[in-house]
Amino acid sequence: MNPIQIATENLKKTVRSRNVKFLCKYFFNEDITPKQEYLIRRVAFQDYKRLSISATTRWGKTYCVSRGIGLFILMNVNRKIIFVAPQKEQSLILRDYMADLIYKCPQLADITDFDVTGIEKIKKQASRSRQTFKNDCEYRVFTAFRGGEGLMGFGLGSEGGILVVDESALVDENSWAKITRMLGDNPAKSTIIELCNPWDRATKAYEHWIDDAYETFHVNWEDAVEEGRTTLDFIEQQRKELTPLEFDVLYNSNFPVESVDSIFNLIRIKEAEEKEPKMSGEYIISCDVADKGLDKTVIMVGYKEGDYYSVCEIKEENISDNMNIAGNIINLINKWVGSYETNVYIDSIGVGTGVVSRVKEEVELKGWNKTRVNPVNIIGCHYGETAKEDKERFANRKAEGYFRLRKLFDEGFICIPKHKTLMSELLAMKWQFTSSSKIKIIDPDKSPDFADALVYFVWDKEDEYIFGGRMIH
Question: Strand (E) positions, 16-103?
Fold first, then answer.
């Protein structure tokens, strides 16, 4: 039984009306602001199954989540709460909030499983990484250190509960795979809440922030000033002391549009998504061939009219069989053969060489490459080759290709479909200088299959050797 079940009828009525402002005053003797009230209510009553929170520093997002969890424990039985953070020090922040809440709330203290007496001993025991309650609720604290090895074997269970990920933008992708498994055997009864300082777009935290499956809660410095959580004088002082990027992240609570080592600008990508495709000109097919078990084969189809590129369709396959991939490309060529000049750009590294050879063989067999009107050209794309246009600036064709794509986005000469994975991969791409001051691409942990296919789609074919004995000038 929980404290609400044995409460007075007036208190039960307050719970039914979800009057969180009153409940925080009654149980915790705390006054909360309107935005804090909104967030605490969403946590306590599990209004959203997926919630991502970004708030200006010191506004109190962790405070609000802890108060929401406190009310959740008071109102439920047999439910689990899990706190996860990248490092031990970060994971203890929520635990310490909960320990303080147990100490100051008599109703929580009464249902907490303590085997000690005395204020100091109670405070110490309330700071444990696992705390159980007499209503069969419990919370546990974990870290996502070393790829989340310590998360295996734990979860919210069949009754569900709340999973809180603090500093989610600092959690690596391997850990996220284990974190999502912790939602338990009954995801319908489980909630995942993310708290983040939005330092980097190349994270799962950003993917979730732009994912329609997640509700987002955003508080900037103007909201904090309005609610009396900070002062305008302090904000202006911080604006002078911090870099624009630091201020935007910490006080505007925004993911940066572009960090210093990013290749692509978020605004330019969104503009490209809103453009209308031009369905004429050269017909283009590009393909990034899967080379590993977790990679995808990605094929893009569209057009180039003048200097304007239009990606009209994106196909993906969890295969790396050369014959199947080649067959799919040949079918796409056959769809418009003779109607447009067709340029097919295929990754020619590793297993991709087999696909290039098979498609070339079929194109030559059918004579599609020899027609004077609208021929079919097969171009192999090799990232490791020396940069073609600017050998002094770029370390290889990969860097040159990615920065060619960047220029098309910046100048508005490309149109792409809205595609969550493609956007995430583009935003994750970074660059750096080599020891010889040439630009190279930093390879992400996971192969950017969609981004690579887009680089091939806009590959510069001028003066390239085209299979079939034809030179393009």
Answer: 50-55, 80-85
- The residue among 448, 439, 410 whose CA lies nearest residue 202 is 448
Q: At 275, phi and psi to the nearest 5?
A: -75, 155
Query: Where in the chain are all domains bearing CATH 3.40.50.300?
Result: 9-250
Q: What contacts 233, CB < 8 A, 6 or more positions away?
A: none
In the predicted model, is pLDDT for residue 67 greater than 70? yes
d(CA 386, CA 394): 8
Is 157's pLDDT higher than 90? no
Q: What is the pTM of this model?
A: 0.69
CATH 3.30.300.30 at 9-250, yes or no: no
Contacts 24+ apart (CB under 8 A), 59-62: 59/219, 59/223, 59/224, 59/229, 59/230, 60/36, 60/229, 61/195, 61/219, 62/93, 62/94, 62/97, 62/166, 62/195
Pick from 333, 378, 381: which is nearest to 357 by CA? Answer: 378
Q: Label the pairing between strands 50-55 and 215-219.
A: parallel
Q: Which residues pair with 165 in a beta bridge?
A: 84, 194
The two tokens of residue 78 are 């047999």
- Lookup: tokens for 110: 């009464």
CB atoms within 10 A of CB 124: 12
> What is the rounded distance in angstroms from the CA atom of residue 166 to the CA atom of residue 181?
17
Rank 40-54, 79-93, 290-304, 366-380 by mean pLDDT and report only the highest: 40-54
Q: Where in the chain is the domain with CATH 3.30.420.240?
A: 266-471
pLDDT of residue 468: 41
Please check whether residue 283 is in contact with residue 337, taking contact to mean a CB–CB distance below 8 angstroms.
no
CATH number of 266-471: 3.30.420.240
Distance separating alpha carbons of residues 463 and 349, to the nearest angstrom: 20
Non-local CB neighbours of 29 within 8 Å, separated by 6+ positions: 104
* Cα separation, 110 vs 9, whole angstroms: 20
